[in-house]
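Final report, Chapter 2: Outcomes

The project's central promise was a pipeline that accepts a single protein chain and returns its three-dimensional structure in a standardized token representation, suitable for archiving and comparison. That pipeline is now operational. To close this chapter, we reproduce one record exactly as it appears in the project archive, with the input sequence first and the structure output second.
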Amino acid sequence: MNKIKNTLLYLGILGAFSALMYWIIQTGKLLETGRNIIEPQLQNSYFSQFIQSITSNLAHPVGLVLAQIVTILIVSRIFAFIFKKIHQPTVIGEIIAGIALGPSLLGLLFPEFSSALFPENSLGNLSLLSQVGLILFMFMVGMELDIKVIQNKVRDAVVVSNAGILIPFTLGIGLAYFIYENFAPKGVPFLSFGLFLGLAMSITAFPVLARIVQERGMHRTRIGTLVITCAAADDITAWCLLAAIIAIAKAGSFLSSLYVILLAIGYVIIMIKVVRPFLKRVGDLHDSRENMSKQVVAIFFLTLLISSYTTEIIGIHALFGAFLAGTIMPENSKFRNIFIQKIEDVALVLLLPLFFVFTGLRTQIGLLNDIYLWKITGLIILVAITGKFMGSAIASKIMGQNWRDSLTIGALMNTRGLMELVVLNIGYDLGILSPEVFSMMVIMALVTTFMTGPALDIIERIFKPKVNIIQEKISQLSKYKIILSFGNPEMGSSLLRLANNLIKKQKENTSVTALHLCPNNVLHHYNIDEYENESFSPIIQESELLNQKITTLFKASDNIDDDITEITNKGDFDLLLIGIGQSIFEGSLLGKILGYTTRIVNPDRLIQKVSGKEKMFGNSPFDDRTQNILSGSRVPVGIFVDKNTGNFDQIIVPFYSEKDGFLVEYVQRLIKNSDAQVTATDPYNIVRKQIEIKEAIRAIEQEAPNHITLNSEIDLDEQFMKKFQLMVISTDGWKKLVDSRCSWLNQTPSILILHP
């Protein structure tokens, strides 16, 4: 009754106010008398007017820039995903996406569509948005630099870094001497052209290099720490040189630029001596999400913007100010993590791809339409590789590194990536680089970044290291080795307790390795140690309580599934244990049974569908990640569903498949090492039919009387299952159990699902 009353009241109010508005409009028309109001003439059909309106909206600056951003994000994500799959930095995919959307591909194949999507008069909007993205990105680069690490490694780092700048810088100036006459824009003095080309040859992409070091598990090694320090010192030196070169280029001569350089030096001193201590006090007081208010965030953003604005006014570019603002941020890693998380998604995902496309729109590979131009491009690439790769490698060798480490440092320092594009765009904006030279240098940046991974692989093959970086901590003498891979520390502790139940009375002949892989995009090199300690601390504490020695392995990964199986296979383990968390069975039938939400199909799943790979899993009750691990592992896999049922004193082992004989080995281990009481059930008479299984169970009965019971008459139900703390079952048996949709399935104890 109340619903009807409320509805009638609503309709009454709506009708009354509609009538009032209609009366006001009609009365208002009487006021038009004498104002020469011209009624619009209907010259076209209503549909034609609609089409004209849509066309006008599409051409409107706001509609156009939104269409550009949507297109750029979609294409850049696709290319980034492809290059990630071939183990290349995603930045290469994003750069190539930018080139593909530019005149080199889209403009060549679909010129009308390209000119409609990226008209000349709209590029200013893209440029401004991309500059905002670059300012935020350079701010993050500055925050990711760990000045303390540079100070600790200052001797080796400065020598290698300075050699890695001096040698390619000199070669770059020499290259400028040979190509200046034919390729330098008119009116550009040789000093500006030569200095800019020298700097472009000297750049190292610190963020990309740090990611590669993390992905390859080198961050905890001596060589990994050294190369990150060298890259950080390289970045600081390069950006100081860039500021000086910009001042010289704008002033026209070195003497004229001295005023700008002196002003810049004074500004840097103020930022370090005055602003930095103030920000440190603010950061120390607000180093958690709870007490970091909007006012505090505003202080740091204002510091960034004022710094960028000041350096732009001085004449050394806004990006230098953003970089400097990042370096003086409080060194507190918690604070930096919080602040970076606030801006990196907007900067890296939304705004930075605009810069790649803006660069791609400038990159006209079609201008290189002569074999001579491609020879010059090849010469530029050769000079870049020789100067940076060989320069850094030779300097490292002189400083006492062996050839393997020296060449590794050279290959990593030769990575240019996004930082190179930033410098090239500055040179292009200043008119120092011609469109032809700009395109050649962009190609050089792509080649030198792309070659880093293959170069490192070749170096490893040539020198054939005795122990792989990932395997060097794993003992090869153990007879039974378990590796457990965990996501959250709580699950890691549960997996360790389970592993301990399998081996605790045979510790001298066993080993346990705890593996934690973290998605690469959530780590920064300066907080790796802190993150690793936090991840392993609960597991280490649990190992001390259990008196169980463990080996810890940590790695930043772009493909967690593949890395888990690769490390397990190379380590020659006997059992891989993985846990079920909130995600491992999402989207599967098991996930629905356990109450987890269904997720959207990811790109990997789509590729598997298209390629037909997914068929080999059949109607699996497992999610994509678990399927990939099961199919890639060459050792037995245990999938643990932890329901916090306590110690595993009472265990049930149902035999549902003819292939379940291997379960007896694990039953034997649990009885021998943890004195477990095991109830084996045989609902389908599998044990009766398989004599080998029956004899193996009898052997256990003789060895450990009263510890195992075989019963085929038991009717499994919720009440019966409450007696147990653990169910051990095969993957085939689990699939049959899930397919049967038993009423008691969601009332099971903790489950260990074993795959032979």
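Archive annotation: The CA atoms of residues 247 and 258 lie 8 Å apart.
This record, like all others produced under the grant, will remain available to the consortium after the project formally closes.
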